[in-house]
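User: structure tokens for this one?
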Amino acid sequence: MDRRSFLKKAGLAAGATAGAATLAAPAIAQGKRELKMVTTWPKNFPGLGTGAQRVADRITNASDGRLTVKLFAAGELVPAFESFDAVSSGTADMYHAAEYYWQGKHKAFNFFTAVPMGLTANELDAWINVGGGQELWDELSAQFNIKPFMAGNTGLQMGGWFNKEINSIEDLKGLKMRMPGLGGEVLRRLGATAVALPGGEIFPALQSGAIDATEWVGPWNDLAFGFYKIAKFYYNPGFHEPGAGLSCGLNKDVWESFSPADQALVADACKAENNYMYSEFNWNNGSALETLVNKHGVQLKRFPDAVFDAIAGVSEEVVAEVAGEDDLSKRIYDSYIKARKDVGGWGDISEGAYLENRKRVLG
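Assistant:
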């Protein structure tokens, strides 16, 4: 495509969305485009915020500055939970976020971050990349004028921070806990009050007593947020996010205005971050946990089997109910559960069995 054709095509794409928002179209000058990325993360927050910045930088650098992505952290351009609407309408061009934040738009978005008792990071990647998950995600997001990609994963998350010990299911009743997504609905059915808060609002809510407990991510991020200063009981494993996928969603009109080469460039930048972030969390969580326990006196606890079993039972009910929302929800649910059975079954006799024996023999 020559420069004149490119500018003509880009101008048509920009004009199509100009009525929705004057800020919608990326700035185009002399063949260059500036894209606005909004996020749900605090500015420069380790792992999540820095991961979003890496996606922006990869696109900018790989295009030699022809596509320049400017990142706006939560609250800088729009509030954290308004990122989806900003990109859908064209006020921003792309977001970096967790899809379960959009469950108010469609409950099936949960499957593309994490659902209780769902897929691990490796299993989620297998489903998205090979098992048909991406095609279903594309179909869902297209209803909102968005093209989605996986662009990060935290791995298995911790069960959360509590001001009291959890010895029985009764200890969850009346508890006010920060937990988004379907995990929050599980807590509600067990008698707790689930609250959805963006990352930057969690610490003050815990400090003020507005919430009694919170989950966030894992040791690396939780240490950075300083939850150990308020709560000392740190529980594992997390039932709600066994492999939390993070996403980069692009305004679909903007995406379709890209050349095939630029589409491939953006897709590769997201895939690179998906791999890097998972590695980063795995590398940093162990040393962060050691610091929390040995330096800050955090008490690492494991949920009693009876508590976890009760949570798991309710989780299966909550997740299955999403299939009843509409035909697309059922197709997503059926595909996801098949992946959990097929990929998870292989994992049990491969990595699962190996890790069990490694721990048994080597400690």
